[in-house]
Design brief:
The radius of gyration is 39 Å and the shape is elongated. The strands form four sheets. It has a six-stranded mixed sheet, sandwiched between helices. A five-stranded parallel sheet has the order 7-8-9-6-10. The chain has a three-stranded antiparallel sheet with strand order 3-4-5. The protein contains 23 helices and 16 strands. The protein is α/β, with parallel strands linked by helices. It has four domains: about 120 residues, no CATH class; about 110 residues, Rossmann fold (3-Layer(aba) Sandwich); about 70 residues, no CATH class; about 210 residues, Rossmann fold (3-Layer(aba) Sandwich). β1 and β2 form a beta hairpin.
Length: about 675
């Protein structure tokens, strides 16, 4: 009796074959063998296929001969091309032929001598007025389609592996098909699909968009407002004629607190009803907020021996018994295999021994990289991951491993300098048995030329002390600041000085670091990761440099991919807004061009305090030099050279002319203008 797993496996592999057939038909249209036409209406639509007119004059009805012609025309034939005998490409009728004969001319492609000489040959002739007289009578669509399907490529091993995992999850979690149908009957069911295989989430999303798992193409929308599950950036026009589906990533849910998950679910359920699919590739169990509230939970194990044997049969034609025998001889252990490894190893034409040897090598390499990563080695940056890249072997993944490191989110963490570790506090150093130093603490109190920014920092220092004592709420404090000014005015220096003044860590990042991956999902993940990391280290300062690079939503259409930039701005607004989400996080933005920032970022509750830092004047420069010189200021002033005194000017004696002293002329005073009558 056929089990539910076998039934779902047969259905999903049939979906893959159907998609491969449609792709082959589209290729035949490009080659001129088939013609297609779009049909349908508002409810249903599709594509009709027929044999192209030119194919009726190229095919003879002889399967052996037509098989060679079709193989050459679609460019993936089994028969090798012979020299001088290239694929026949239909050109068209020669309307100017004499004697009432219409000649159909075909050009031979592939022979170098014929390509250079431009030779052509006559393929068929027929009398004028009867263009279909020379066509083969039995060239119908079923005949051509059967010959085309002989050239179907084997299924993609990654698609086949995902299909097997999904079928196994359904068969292991449900008793029969009727239970699955009843669970999916509501308009917006919540389904949890779990398979602890790295890259499972991404591949499921891509297959949903391509129509490989369901009988329609899906337009994916993330519940947590991140990138789509497929990892593809979707243009607005690409959602036409697609069914809407809400998705979640298990990796994203794992690092999101329950409060945010509940809020996002509430907003999703208030929107237009749509199915919600949570795809999870993590090893650990997710929060009960999703596992206990899901309408349907489908779960299976990772890739095992049975999965490998089935993949070898489906993609390489290797019998399962042979695959099991080779795995037993090699003592092959598939634990830790990823879908990336499946794509690299399983190829048509490879034997079972070759395929399994490559898989064993990949598993060994992965184990070596994971060991080096745990030991803190870089291994030439091969172990660095981002976004939904695999976090390691399935046996070593855990909730802590899914959290982003500072370098993964483009953040540099700067710890504050202890007060008793610098000069100016000789008493504390002496009490600790340390020699006094001449370095001065870089603090806001010691800086010059910051004006209102310095006052804001000192007020924040006092408020932070009250907040720590529970005497002041975070939303009652001014914790968000925008610094603007020309380059070199010390915006970054102010952030580092504030770190020491408040004695809290500084997390320095920039919009350029966020945009480094380029891909929208990774950029949004870096932005969220920077704020999440600051929340973990709270109280902390999150310094965002060159914040104007994120742009503005005004003047839409002035730059390419407006949806891309709008998504970035919306995410930043969401991260800045709300005291509960950013409690303990002091946000400072820096820019040289404040006029290029979206006005919504500068509204109340966000970067509402704006301080412009001008170029330093003479007094400020004196203070800057005094800070950097520190205790050496008096010595530098004492070593300055004394100002030079100017000696009195001596009159040079007049030079005699012809032995006689020159005659000195008396100065003649100019007559002064007459003044008016004086009134005493």
């Amino acid at each position: 009796m056929e089990t539910l797993t076998d039934r779902m496996t047969r259905y999903l592999l049939k979906r893959l074959r159907r998609r491969a057939v449609l792709t082959l038909y589209e290729r035949a249209v490009d080659a001129g063998l088939l013609a297609s036409a779009f049909i349908g209406g508002e409810e249903r639509n599709g594509t009709s296929w027929r044999v192209a007119d030119q194919a009726r004059y190229l095919l003879t009805g002889n399967p052996a001969q037509d098989r060679r012609v079709i193989a050459r025309m679609i460019g993936m034939g089994r028969a090798p091309l012979q020299h001088g005998d290239g694929p026949v490409i239909f050109i068209g009728p020669d309307e100017d032929a004499a004697d009432g004969v219409v000649t159909f001319e075909c050009q031979t492609i592939g022979a170098p001598d014929e390509q250079q000489a431009g030779k052509t040959r006559r393929a068929r002739r027929m009398k004028a007025g009867s263009r279909t007289a020379g066509a083969a009578p039995n060239i119908a669509f079923p005949y051509v389609a059967a010959l085309l399907r002989e050239h179907l490529p084997p299924p993609n091993p990654v698609h086949a592996a995902v299909a097997l995992l999904v079928a196994r999850a359904i068969g292991a979690s449900l008793p029969d098909m009727q239970t699955l149908i009843e669970a999916l009957r509501p308009s917006a069911p919540l389904v949890l699909l779990k398979a602890p295989v790295p890259r499972f989430e991404l591949c499921v999303g891509m297959m949903l968009e391509d129509g490989l798992l369901l009988p329609f193409r899906a337009a994916l929308e993330d519940v947590l407002r991140e990138n789509p599950l497929s990892g593809r950036y979707r243009q607005q026009h690409s959602t036409v004629n697609r069914r809407k589906m809400k998705t979640l990533s298990g990796i994203a849910v794992e690092v999101t607190n329950d409060k945010d998950i509940r809020r996002q679910f509430r907003q999703t359920l208030l929107d237009e009803p749509a199915p919600i699919l949570l795809v999870d590739e993590t090893v650990s169990a997710l929060t009960p907020v999703v596992t206990e509230t899901a309408d349907l939970v489908l779960e299976c194990g990772g890739i095992d021996h049975e999965t490998i044997a089935e993949l070898l049969q489906i993609c390489a034609g290797i019998p399962p018994k042979q695959g099991f025998a080779v795995m037993d001889d090699m003592a092959f252990d598939p634990a830790g295999l990823t879908l990336d490894d499946i794509a690299l190893a399983i190829r048509p034409g490879r034997s079972a021994e070759q395929t399994l040897s490559i898989l064993a090598m990949l598993i060994e390499r992965l184990a070596t990289e994971d060991g080096d990563e745990r030991d803190g080695k870089d291994t030439n940056s091969r172990t660095r991951r981002s976004g939904k890249e695999r976090a390691g072997a399935a046996s070593s993944r855990s909730k802590e491993a899914a959290k982003k490191k500072p370098q993964d989110v483009g953040v540099e963490v700067v710890e504050p300098v202890a007060v008793n570790a610098v000069g100016g506090h000789e008493g504390a150093n002496a009490a600790a048995g340390k020699p006094p130093t001449k370095d001065r603490l870089l603090s806001v109190e010691a800086l010059a030329g910051y004006g209102p920014a310095r006052d804001w920092a000192l007020d924040l220092k006092a408020d932070l002390s009250l907040w720590r004592d529970g005497k002041l709420r975070w939303d009652e404090m001014s914790t968000k600041l925008l610094l603007s000014g020309p380059p070199g005015t010390g915006k970054t220096t102010f952030a580092r000085a504030l770190c020491n003044t408040l004695q809290v860590p500084l997390l320095a990042t920039s919009v350029a670091n966020w945009l480094e991956p380029g891909y929208l999902g990774e950029v949004l993940r870096r932005m969220s990761g920077a704020f999440a990391l600051a929340g973990e280290k709270a109280p902390a300062i999150l310094f965002i440099d060159e914040i104007d690079n994120i742009g503005t939503r005004q003047g839409a259409g002035s730059r390419n991919y407006d949806d891309y930039w709008t998504s970035l701005i919306n995410r930043l607004l969401e991260l800045l807004d709300g005291a509960s989400k950013s409690e303990g996080v002091i946000v400072i933005g820096a820019t040289n061009l404040p006029e290029k920032i979206d006005p919504a970022i500068l509204r109340s509750g966000r970067l509402e305090t704006h301080v412009r830092i001008p170029m330093p004047d003479a007094e400020t420069l004196i203070g800057i030099l005094g800070h950097h010189l520190g205790d050496d200021l008096e010595a530098v002033l004492a070593s300055a050279p004394a100002p030079a005194t100017t000696p009195p000017r001596r009159l040079r004696p007049p030079t005699p002319i012809n032995g006689k002293p020159p005659v000195r002329r008396k100065s003649v005073q100019k007559p002064q203008a007459e003044k008016g009558p004086r009134h005493d």
